[in-house]
Amino acid sequence: MAVLVNKNSRVIVQGFTGSEGTFHAQQMIEYGTNVVGGVTPGKGGQKHLERPVFNTVYDAVKDVQANVSIIFVPPAFAADAIMESADAGIEVIICITEGIPVKDMMYAKEYLKGKKSRLIGPNCPGVITPGEAKVGIMPGFVFKPGRVGIVSKSGTLTYEASDQIVKAGLGISTAIGIGGDPIIGTPTREAVELLMEDEGTDAIVMIGEIGGNYETIAAEYIKSTGNKKPVIGFIAGQTAPKGRRMGHAGAIIGGKDDTAQAKMEIMSKCGIHVVHSPADIGATVVKVLSQVQSS
């Protein structure tokens, strides 16, 4: 089982013929992802990487039955690209673009209401279901198939967690990089819920960071399930000073509940297995799963 993307996903690349789109589309194709084409306005009818290029997402949906889109479009045009995909009926929209103006994302987020599309990102590494589909910029070799799901605001910590889990003899069901911007399509709680309901996921690693309340909302949801599956949590930015942006645009401590310490305390109270160092993620997953299996 998997969530969001799998071997049957029919993926198109928006910004297909640009340098970023070309490079990462090639990587996805080599991984085995079913990339069925791409979109670059004005270049419809051409071939690129032996795939058809379309002028619009609508044309790609009509001609090659695309249902997943990954966006490598410059920040000024990326929100329009998101809305175009939603309008064309794309089911999963993954936006890699960083630096989209907040005002643009406010429009895009509102536009998505009532649509069947789910947005992942922006400013994210994408989604990978190991052995089936890599729709993103993550190094595919780090991920091996298994039954541990990952939800993360951080791209690099997603790779680090997966590497530890794989080296510990386990594997990944689906890893979801939700993005680090203030306004994103799928917050932590919704991504965790997808994995909580997935029959192919036995445990979840939830990686958050300072700023906002996504992790605390997710923790309350996890508690409400009766801790149906074990969740291992880590919050980045434990030494960050108040008011200082650390890395992601959304990682700014606004109030006392935005700090790493406050989030970690809430997570612990909700039954999440909190680690204080990213180096302990893999070992903690192994420990927790062994306790669950022996009980």
TrEMBL record:
Q: What are the recorded Gene Ontology BP terms?
A: tricarboxylic acid cycle
Q: Which residues form the active site?
A: H248
Q: Which domain of life is it from?
A: Bacteria
Q: Tell me which residues bind CoA.
A: T17, G18, S19, E20, K43, I96, T97, E98
Give Gene Ontology CC terms. succinate-CoA ligase complex (ADP-forming)
Annotated binding of substrate, by residue: Y159
From the UniProt record, give the pathway where this protein acts: Carbohydrate metabolism; tricarboxylic acid cycle; succinate from succinyl-CoA (ligase route): step 1/1
Could you tell me the keywords of this UniProt record?
Ligase, Nucleotide-binding, Tricarboxylic acid cycle
InterPro entries documented for this protein: Cit_synth/succinyl-CoA_lig_AS, Citrt_syn/SCS-alpha_CS, CoA-bd, CoA_lig_alpha, NAD(P)-bd_dom_sf, SUCC_ACL_C, Succinyl-CoA_synth-like
Molecular-function GO terms, alphabetical: nucleotide binding; succinate-CoA ligase (ADP-forming) activity; succinate-CoA ligase (GDP-forming) activity
Q: Which Gene3D superfamilies does this UniProt record tie to the protein?
A: NAD(P)-binding Rossmann-like Domain, Succinyl-CoA synthetase domains
Quote the function comment for this protein. Succinyl-CoA synthetase functions in the citric acid cycle (TCA), coupling the hydrolysis of succinyl-CoA to the synthesis of either ATP or GTP and thus represents the only step of substrate-level phosphorylation in the TCA. The alpha subunit of the enzyme binds the substrates coenzyme A and phosphate, while succinate binding and nucleotide specificity is provided by the beta subunit.
User: What is said about its interaction partners and assembly?
Assistant: Heterotetramer of two alpha and two beta subunits.
What's the protein here called?
Succinate--CoA ligase [ADP-forming] subunit alpha
Q: What is the lineage of its organism?
A: Bacteria, Pseudomonadati, Bacteroidota, Cytophagia, Cytophagales
